[in-house]
Amino acid sequence: MTQAETTSRVRYSTLLCVVAAALVGTLIGVALSATAPIPGVTEVSEVVSVAIPIVRVLLDIAAVATIGLSLLSVLVGYDRPKLTEPVLRVARPAAVAGALVWSVTAFVALVLQTAEFRPRSETIGAGDVWDYIVQIGAGKALLVVGVLALLHAGLGVLTLRHGEKVPAEVRVGLGLFALLPLPVTGHASNWDYHDYTMISMELHVMSAVAWTGGLGAMAVLLIGNRTLLAHALPRFSKLATLCLLLSAATGLFNGIVEINLNPTMDLFTGLFTTPYGQLVLLKLGCTVVIALFGAHVRWRLMPKIVRHERTALALWATLELTVMGLAFGFAVVLTRAPVA
Fold first, then answer.
1. Burial 181-212 (b: 16+ CB within 10 A, else e)
2. How far is CA 163 from CA 89, 92, 179, 216, 272, in A?
3. Which of 54, 108, 121, 152 lies deepest, with the highest CB count within 10 Å?
4. Can you give the pTM of this predicted structure?
């Protein structure tokens, strides 16, 4: 067995591309949704206004990384520890680090959103943060997310000592559960019949994170390991197809419903003339591009990967993940953009 089949260097460049794209997408979204100051109304600091979506997208990327690294154990399987352990020994501490970043960014976002909630306050203390938690659903959600991410980090520490005796399915399940509080505090919570959009939003977030996280973990840790890649990629491909369909359908449904709730404009006007609609279209465009990249990997590259042949998977996976990063940036701003 050649060295390329048993070892793989960590591809930090792929991770950097995703983070950079997510930040660019966030800044584009912020620029699109910027509104003129309203006379007589106290405006939130521009620093706070820009920092909130940036921290939120970093929170999302940390969640993606944490869940994807936990999912990697399921994808590579448990029946060949001599092959999988060298990779998982890298993935486990990385997952702990991702969970810690996830938790920290949740608490930082909580402080920033408290500052947004109190634009006249020059300083923000613990009492202000607690009042925000008590009064606002988003505060409660961020607190729960921060605590659950810390629990995930604790579970990850146990895996450093006991390996796969701590089931990967439990780690993935806890990670996905930690995704649930935030989506229900966005636009979907404003609709009288919000139950359907709430469920749709939860499915949208979980499918997007599992899809991006699984692909990201393989792209960063498995690209050079042909043996494990040939085993993991076909398994992931089935999950990715389901996640793509769910993410596209639920994202489109949520966007159309929110625009249609505005009685002052029709769907076409809402999509093409409002910041919210434009961000929906940008996300939809990203989804189409991602689907095309994914189809190329599945139908053109995967048969060669299964035969342990050389492919350009590193390039195509990085391109796909970069567009996913852009989509995450747009999504963060979308949750805060006015529908009108």
1. bbbbbbbbeeeeebeebbebbbbbbbbbbbbb
2. 9, 8, 24, 21, 51
3. 152
4. 0.91
In the numeric block, which tokens belong to residue 133?
């938690």
Burial of 277 (0-12, 13-18, 19+ CB in 10 A): buried
Dihedral angle over CA of 326, 328, 331, 335, nearest 10? -140
Cα Rg, the chain, nearest whole Å? 21
DSSP states of 14-34: HHHHHHHHHHHHHHHHHHHH-
43: number of Cβ within 10 Å: 11
| Phi-psi group of 163: left, alpha or beta (phi > 0 → left; psi -120 to 50 → alpha; rest → beta) | left
Within 118-225, residue ranges assigned H as helices are 126-135, 137-162, 168-178, 194-221
CA-CA distance, 240 to 238, in Å (whole number)?
5
Q: Report the 10 Å Cβ neighbour count for 249.
A: 14
**287 contacts 251 by C-beta, under 8 angstroms:** yes
Does residue 339 register a pLDDT over 90?
no
Residues 112-162 pLDDT 10s: 999 988 877 778 888 999 999 999 999 999 999 999 999 999 999 999 999
Checking phi first, is residue 8 left (phi over 0); if not, alpha (psi -120 to 50) or beta?
beta
Identify the CA nearest to 54 among candidates 16, 25, 23.
23
